[in-house]
Amino acid sequence: MALIDNLIGATGKWVANSDSNATLASPLAWLRKTGGYSAVNRIIGMSIPFATRNRFSVEELRPGYVKAKIRLKGNKNHFGSLYAGAYFLVAEIPGGVLTLFDLGPSYTPILKEMTLQFLQPANSDVTVEFSLPPETVEEILTDADNTGRAKFSLEGQLHDQEGNHVATSIAHYRVRKQGFKPTD
Fold it and tell me: Model's pTM, two decimal places?
């Protein structure tokens, strides 16, 4: 676990110091950004191989924000639209990504409950975006540092490639601080 924790910490710093708006007009900044996202996706694949097999990817990551995508290819249901499990995958993993990269590897995210409301079938790749305001991150850190754990929730709107709102997710997480020992 120490190797993964070190990779998460180093990658988090790398991504946080990248310009998320970098384009090929600035090739070194673009390489730094895309290389950072590639590293994030490799870490996810090492930790959760199921995510990589199902074509999940983080598309954008910066402090307090993550955008993720699940591809339709390989995730179709019997109607040819996105399989329900793929919706859950793309809606659940970003909460852990935000936690690990905003709080650090000493804080372990655990999904406690998640609901998904399907609004219409997705016949293309689907993306979701989540954000945690700095005040919420501070509250999570304070609670976890004082009690060994903290709760937070994320609500996301899942969109197809045409921008249609295809589903809404609500996920409730608990974060545990590794090695926490209550003070007497």
Answer: 0.85
